[in-house]
Each structure stands twice: as C-alpha cells, then as structure tokens.
Amino acid sequence: MPCTRLPRSVPCRPTHATTLLRNHRPASGHYIAQLRERASDTAASSSFNLQGSARLQSLPLHIDPSMAASLRWTVAVAAVACVLALQGAVAQLSPTFYDSSCPKLQSIVRSAMAAAVQQEPRMGASILRLFFHDCFVQGCDASVLLDDSPTLTGEKNAGPNANSLRGYEVIDSIKSQVEAACPGTVSCADILALAARDGVNLLSGPTWAVPLGRRDTRTASQSAANSNLPSPSSSAATLVSAFASKGLDSRDLVALSGAHTIGAARCATFRSRVYNDTNINAGFAAKRRQICGAQPGGTDGNLAPLDAMSSVKFDNGYFRNLVAQFGLLHSDQELFGGGAVDSVTAGYARNGAAFARDFVTAMVKMGNISPLTGASGEIRANCRKPN
C-alpha cells in the first residue's frame, strides 16, 4: 500500500518500523557487574576481566532504559504498511488477510505459543530460527516443515538443520487447532510467521503486524538448504553476501542476528570459536570450554546460551556481549570484529529501542522473501506433507 494512502497524521518512515514504548521504568544499571558475576565461577587461572575492555568502556555503563524488564514494544501497523509499499512483489500480503475467513487465527496462535514458551522458554527462539531457515530456502513457503518421503527429499536433514532445528511439534499443534476452527484456510507458512512473531513478543520483545497471505509449497530442496543457510563459522563478508542475495542489507543482517539474544547453541557449533579464536574474552572462552571438549564426541550436543546474560529475554544484551568479545559463535563475533558493520552493532549495544525497531523492519522484509500467493502452491492440511 503506498504511503500516500495513509492518514496524514500517521508518519511514514519506510526504513524503520515505528515503536511505542510502554510500561517504562529505569533499568537496574548493573549489566557489567552481572557479566563479571556470571563468569566468577570460571577457573582461577582465567584472565576474565570485563573492565579491561576499552571498547566496552566506550559505551554507557547502563542498560538502555528501553530494555528494562518491564519494557514492551507495540509496533504501528502503519509502519509495516510502509515497508510493504517498498516491496511491490508482495503486494498480495496483508495483515488483515484472514480477518474474515479465520478471525480467531491470531488468538489461536498466540495462546498456543504462550503455552509452549511457558513450558520451555527456549521454544520462542526455536520457532524464530525455524522461520529464518524456512525463508532463506525457496522463500517463506513452509518448505522446511516437509518430512522426507519416497518422492520428496526435504530440508530437515540438511547439514544446517539436522539435529538442530526444533519446534515442529508446536507448529503441528497450532495447525491442528487452526484447522479445527477454519478448515483448509490458513497456510503453514503463515502459521510459522505468526508463531515466530509471538515467540519474540512472549520473551519481552517487540510485536508487529505480520503480513499474511502466503501459500505452502509442494516441494523442498535439501541442496538449497545446504548452500543457502549461513554457517556458524561464516565471515562477515560471507554473511553480508548471503543476506544480500535475499534482498536484505547489512543493517538487516545485524538486526536479524540479534535474534541470538535468545536461545542456545550446541558445542559442535562453537567449539572452534572457544578453542581457536583470538578475539574472544579469555574468561568467557574458559567457561565455555568446561562444557565443550576440544575433540568431537560426547560433548557435541551440550548447550550454551547465545546470550550469556539473558537467553530467555529479547533485549540488546547480545550486542553488548559482542562489544565485550563475548560472542558465542564465530559468525556472531564477526559482527564486531573490525569490519564495516561494527558501527551498527555498537549502535544497537547503546540503543535497545533502535535494535527493536530495525529488527521488526528486517523481520517484515525477510517474511516477504519469495512468498507463494494467489493460485500458487496450496494450503496444506498437514504441515509435514503436501496434500
């Protein structure tokens, strides 16, 4: 929808989603002390000393008030409309797509995600990652949800996904509830997009109007999953290139990487980082080596939080960690390693509201990658298999 169709009273800034801060109160101001305390159980020989980081000291030694525990962001629908106006190819997507055909859709998804996150807070991050891995392979078409069959080789067993992606059962459950309310109406692709949004919001992150109207693919591509999804060892240049190939710029890259403020990673993905990288806080590396052996084997599946301070709270702690060289994955620390995106990372470390705003913009853009609309694709009855 062209921005000129919006009421004159509504500001239209296509590059950013407008956020409204509510329930604001001052933050605790002890982020640095908390980091030091969390690492206090590191081996005595550890050289962990957060205050020694000159780059971190150049930042304000308080959490941005916008990231206080009580913070909730509400994102204006008008801002999402402006983002969509820049992307004519997805003009058929609309936040109101199911308002008449399935009016209870969003409440069904929200309730199911609330139950899933309450049972396991990490699930919010898992569903968000599932959405990312879907959109980066063939577009946001629910291809990642398809099981292998005699006639289809899916994406679940691709290298970046096998023994890693999770949350399929949550999407199955939501789909069953939606089918009971609105048979044959809502795509698995749209359910995944809504669930990802709600997973973020339920962990104290922003909310936004999700453009809807995607349809489900009948195909999947394991080879595309292997080649399109960035790895934990990717360089900054590789990441920028991978995101650019999907129509996402370097700011989108950094903002979407901020999803690592929630969730966890397996030892196999950060082993090389904690044993071989030099741009890592020594005490932090020592602490992670305690749960991740130097050789592949029994510790491969051990988990560590991607954000050491607040892995079940969506905030800007991830970026403050990067400035302190606390990035868990090599690809994380590449966002603050002397390259072109350092300034974006440092900006988000200082300003949580800016991160939240840009994350929403980037999520809408990512959700618009090559959707199937109109008569293309189908509405699956079961997210795991084509009709």
TrEMBL record:
<comment type="similarity">
    <text>Belongs to the peroxidase family. Ascorbate peroxidase subfamily.</text>
</comment>
<feature type="disulfide bond">
    <location>
        <begin position="188"/>
        <end position="383"/>
    </location>
</feature>
<comment type="similarity">
    <text>Belongs to the peroxidase family. Classical plant (class III) peroxidase subfamily.</text>
</comment>
<feature type="active site" description="Proton acceptor">
    <location>
        <position position="133"/>
    </location>
</feature>
<feature type="binding site">
    <location>
        <position position="230"/>
    </location>
    <ligand>
        <name>substrate</name>
    </ligand>
</feature>
<feature type="disulfide bond">
    <location>
        <begin position="267"/>
        <end position="292"/>
    </location>
</feature>
<keyword id="KW-0106">Calcium</keyword>
<feature type="binding site">
    <location>
        <position position="143"/>
    </location>
    <ligand>
        <name>Ca(2+) 1</name>
    </ligand>
</feature>
<keyword id="KW-0408">Iron</keyword>
<feature type="disulfide bond">
    <location>
        <begin position="102"/>
        <end position="182"/>
    </location>
</feature>
<feature type="binding site">
    <location>
        <position position="141"/>
    </location>
    <ligand>
        <name>Ca(2+) 1</name>
    </ligand>
</feature>
<dbReference type="GO" id="GO:0020037">
    <property type="term" value="F:heme binding"/>
</dbReference>
<comment type="function">
    <text>Removal of H(2)O(2), oxidation of toxic reductants, biosynthesis and degradation of lignin, suberization, auxin catabolism, response to environmental stresses such as wounding, pathogen attack and oxidative stress.</text>
</comment>
<feature type="disulfide bond">
    <location>
        <begin position="135"/>
        <end position="140"/>
    </location>
</feature>
<dbReference type="InterPro" id="IPR019793">
    <property type="entry name" value="Peroxidases_heam-ligand_BS"/>
</dbReference>
<dbReference type="Pfam" id="PF00141">
    <property type="entry name" value="peroxidase"/>
</dbReference>
<keyword id="KW-0349">Heme</keyword>
<dbReference type="InterPro" id="IPR010255">
    <property type="entry name" value="Haem_peroxidase_sf"/>
</dbReference>
<protein>
    <recommendedName>
        <fullName>Peroxidase</fullName>
        <ecNumber>1.11.1.7</ecNumber>
    </recommendedName>
</protein>
<dbReference type="GO" id="GO:0005576">
    <property type="term" value="C:extracellular region"/>
</dbReference>
<dbReference type="GO" id="GO:0042744">
    <property type="term" value="P:hydrogen peroxide catabolic process"/>
</dbReference>
<feature type="binding site">
    <location>
        <position position="155"/>
    </location>
    <ligand>
        <name>Ca(2+) 1</name>
    </ligand>
</feature>
<keyword id="KW-0325">Glycoprotein</keyword>
<keyword id="KW-0479">Metal-binding</keyword>
<feature type="binding site">
    <location>
        <position position="307"/>
    </location>
    <ligand>
        <name>Ca(2+) 2</name>
    </ligand>
</feature>
<dbReference type="InterPro" id="IPR033905">
    <property type="entry name" value="Secretory_peroxidase"/>
</dbReference>
<feature type="binding site">
    <location>
        <position position="134"/>
    </location>
    <ligand>
        <name>Ca(2+) 1</name>
    </ligand>
</feature>
<feature type="binding site">
    <location>
        <position position="315"/>
    </location>
    <ligand>
        <name>Ca(2+) 2</name>
    </ligand>
</feature>
<dbReference type="GO" id="GO:0046872">
    <property type="term" value="F:metal ion binding"/>
</dbReference>
<keyword id="KW-1015">Disulfide bond</keyword>
<keyword id="KW-0560">Oxidoreductase</keyword>
<dbReference type="InterPro" id="IPR000823">
    <property type="entry name" value="Peroxidase_pln"/>
</dbReference>
<keyword id="KW-0376">Hydrogen peroxide</keyword>
<feature type="binding site">
    <location>
        <position position="261"/>
    </location>
    <ligand>
        <name>Ca(2+) 2</name>
    </ligand>
</feature>
<feature type="domain" description="Plant heme peroxidase family profile">
    <location>
        <begin position="92"/>
        <end position="387"/>
    </location>
</feature>
<dbReference type="InterPro" id="IPR002016">
    <property type="entry name" value="Haem_peroxidase"/>
</dbReference>
<feature type="site" description="Transition state stabilizer">
    <location>
        <position position="129"/>
    </location>
</feature>
<keyword id="KW-0575">Peroxidase</keyword>
<dbReference type="GO" id="GO:0140825">
    <property type="term" value="F:lactoperoxidase activity"/>
</dbReference>
<keyword id="KW-0964">Secreted</keyword>
<dbReference type="InterPro" id="IPR019794">
    <property type="entry name" value="Peroxidases_AS"/>
</dbReference>
<feature type="binding site" description="axial binding residue">
    <location>
        <position position="260"/>
    </location>
    <ligand>
        <name>heme b</name>
    </ligand>
</feature>
